[in-house]
Amino acid sequence: MATMNRRIVLASRPHGEPTPAHFRLEEARVPSPRPGEVLLRTRWLSLDPYMRGRMSAAKSYVAPVGIGEPMTGGTVSEVVRSDHPDFAAGTLVSAFGGWQDFSVSDGTGLRKVDPALAPPTTALGILGMPGMTAYTGLLNIGRPRPGETVAVAAAAGPVGSLVGQIARLKGARAVGIAGGPEKCAHLIDDLGFDAAVDHRSDDLPAALAAACPDGIDVYFENVGGAVFEAVLPLLNDFSRIPVCGLVSGYNATEPPPGPDRAPALMRAILTKRLQLQGFIVWDFASQIDEFEAAVGGWLREARVRYREDIVEGLENAPEAFIGLLKGQNFGKLIVRVA
Ligand code: NDP
Questions:
Q1: I need a labelling partner for 222 at 20 to 30 A (CA). Which of 82, 166, 229, 317 fits?
Q2: How far is CA 99 from the centre of its chain?
Q3: Is the full-model pTM beyond 0.85?
Q4: What atom in ligand 1 is closest to the CA of residue 281?
């Protein structure tokens, strides 16, 4: 077995868009598990927008990555050495191994991945954290009813693509917003969305209005910014807005130009009786078994689909992550590490 552990550490904190210089590839000795622990070899690493927040020192819902520390991240890893009764060597697990070849764990948070049930990478996407985000945010906060219109942005990504598909399974009309004609065609042709709107089109408000003739009853917020401004006038009375992510602003260094939008937003919340609720997926941790049973079942019955964007090699993770924040990924972004 390898004796060295390649790992990508945070070299410095970005102001604005991250560049490769904010990361550093290092080699360290493979860590030694202590009694009761397992040694994990990373097979696949998940890249997710929230990692931009971990690079920043700003106060958030979890602590940032320290300078010189490996970037954190969800992984599908193989147990290569075990002193833990529940995880024999050879077992595949979903873990929080980070951007590195090897990690150790005392078993907390590990979940076994059965490759006979679904491809292991789905544990990082449709059957993992992004899938659970879509399922719990939409059903607990969005609560779509048959005949309603559900709009979602970043719709070709792992969260948005499942939001739209579940909306349709619940009898609602799904409108996806995505960047570029190829992603929009994928929403309609492969995922069964009722309509798709390119957020880079010349007149986004008009294009979105045309795609939502009855207004919007549920807006699953993934991006914020110009997309939210196009959505706001279309929201119907009593619409529900799960606020999941604001990726358009993750690299922002100053507020958007123009007038303060907060008064208009507060007025819309009042007069239209909007229900906005922010959430973090683990607020619904108790629903993980229900989520796995429901989405796992739909996947086996081919009632939901997913798309992956697999990048080869740990050393290519920084560039792939930088691209994720600009929409260069097409589907769930995963790095094949070993
Ligand atoms: P994606 O794989 O969909 O990647 C993000 C996508 O955002 C890009 O591909 C791009 O798609 C889109 N995007 C980036 N910039 C803009 C912009 N300026 N305007 C419009 N779209 C933009 O990511 P995920 O599915 O993993 O995550 C989606 C959202 O959910 C993120 O905001 C993420 O932070 C959030 N999230 C929140 C969780 C929670 O617990 N609250 C948990 C997991 C995710 P395109 O090419 O279509 O523009």
A1: 317
A2: 17
A3: yes
A4: 40
